[in-house]
Write a structure and sequence with these properties.
About 40% of the residues lie in helices and about 30% in strands. It is of the alpha+beta class. Helix 1 crosses helix 3. The longest helix is centred in the N-terminal third of the chain and has 12 residues. The radius of gyration is 12 Å and the shape is globular.
Length: about 80
């Protein structure tokens, strides 16, 4: 699978940068843009290691999926 934004950054760094610029991300975006299959694990690390306040919204239209929204960073 070819990712559109290959870089020297880790998936965690790519997801963090994406959230800082766009404030939201879904698992499909993470997979397509960064080749990240386990977005929830990256979000967990951003919350607990880097102290980001990230809200989870469960979207339930045709298929159930999560949308993560960056609210800010804890002091």
């Amino acid at each position: 699978m070819k990712t559109s934004k290959k870089s020297l950054f880790s998936q965690k760094q790519n997801i963090e940068n994406h959230l800082l610029v766009h404030t939201t991300i879904t698992p499909l975006e993470a997979l397509k843009l960064y080749g990240c299959f386990r977005l929830s694990a990256v979000i967990f690390k951003l919350r607990h290691e880097d102290k980001y306040d990230i809200k989870t919204i469960i979207c339930d239209k045709d298929k159930r999926y999560a949308k993560y929204i960056l609210k800010g960073k804890f002091a």
